[in-house]
Amino acid sequence: MYTFLAFGAGLAFLLGLADLLSFYGKKPKKERDVSSNSEAKSVPSKREGLTISILFFSVSLVQMHLYLELSEQLREFPWFAEIHIPVLFLIGPLTYLYFQRLTGAKETKLSGFHFLPAVIAFLILLPFLLRSSESKLRFLKNEDPSDVYSWVLLALLVFATILNLVYPSALLQRVWRWRSNTDEENRKSFSPILWLFSGTLFVIVLFVIAQIFFMPLFLVAASGLTLLVSVIFLIGAYDPGLMDSFQKSSREARYKESRIAGLDVEALLLRLDDLMREKKLYLDEDLTLGNLSKELELSTHQLSEILNSRLQKGFREYLADFRLEEAARILREEPQRSVLSAAYGAGFKSKSAFHKLFQEKYGASPTSFRSSQKN
C-alpha cells in the first residue's frame, strides 16, 4: 500500500516534468491564430506551463513526504522532515491561478497575495528547517514533548489542509454555475472538471478528518491523492483535447457573466416582469429584443444573457409564454371571440405558430382547450 503512495509521488513528478518540457522545450506560440479561418486551438502560455508544472511538483513532494512518514522511513531522511508544509500552502493557490488564466480571467495585483500564507508558513518553519539532522531526528522520535514545533506544525498542517479545501470548493461552485448557464451541447465539456474537483474535495475532507480526528485515515486519504493524480494522467492520455474544450466553453461562460456584471439583475427581472404583466408589452406583435432592451436601458446582449442565465429562456420563448397565457385567458373568459381573434389579440402574428406553441404548452389544441374549460 505504501508503494502506491510512492508511485503517486513519482507520477506527479513526471507529469510536472512533462509539462515543463512541453512548454519550455518548444518555440513560443501565439495563444490564438486570429488570422486563420480555421478553428483556433488554445495553446497554453509559458506562464501557465510553469504554474501547472510547479503544481505537480508540489503534489509530488507532499506525496513523497506522506509516503516516508506513513512507512516510517522519514527518520532515515531527517533533513526532509516537514519540508512539505510550506509547499502544501502552494497547492490551492496554484490550482486557482492556473484555473483563472485557463478560463481567461484578468490577472490582478492581488494575485500574489494568494501565496502569502506559504511565505508566512516558510518563515515560521525556517528555524526548524535550519536545524541539524540530529535535532530533527530527535524531534521525529518525540524525545522532547515540550518542543514548541510539536503544536506549531500541527496547526500549520490543519490550516493548510483547510485552506486547500476552500479553493476547489470555490472552483467547483463556479464551474457548476457555468455549466448550468451553458447550452446542452457544450455542458459535457464541464463534466470531467466537475468530477475532478469533486474528487479533490473528497480527498481533502479525508485529510482534514485524519488530521484532526482519526489519524489512521491518513493512509486512505494519501491513496486517494494518488488516485487523483492517476485519473489526471489517464484523462490526459485518453482525451488530449479535453482541456482545449473546457477552456473554450469556460471562456465563453466567463464572457457571458461579464456582460451582466455590476447589474442589479434581481431588480431588472422585477422591472421586466412589471413591463410584461402591467403594461402588457407582449401584446405588441412587433415587439423586438431591441425595443424591450431600450425600455430597460440595457444592451440587447445584456438582456439576452439575463434571460438565458437566470430564466433559462431565449427572448422568443420568454415572449411566447406571456402570449400563450393571454391567449388561454381569452379562450376561457371571452367565449364570443374566435380562436384566431384570441391568437392575434395575444400578440401572435402567425396562426400556425400559435397552434403549435399552444399544443406544446397545454397539451391540447386551442379549440379543445376552450371546450375543456367549459366542462
Automatic annotation (TrEMBL):
SUPFAM superfamilies associated with the record: Homeodomain-like
Keyword Nucleotidyltransferase: no
Chain segments annotated as transmembrane: 6-25, 49-67, 79-99, 111-130, 150-172, 193-214, 220-238
InterPro entries assigned: Homeodomain-like_sf (IPR009057), HTH_AraC (IPR018060), HTH_AraC-typ_CS (IPR018062)
GO molecular function, one term: sequence-specific DNA binding
Keywords of the record: DNA-binding, Membrane, Transcription, Transcription regulation, Transmembrane, Transmembrane helix
Residues in HTH araC/xylS-type domain copies: 273-372
SMART domains for the chain: HTH_ARAC
Identification of the protein by name: AraC family transcriptional regulator
Annotated organism of origin: Leptospira semungkisensis
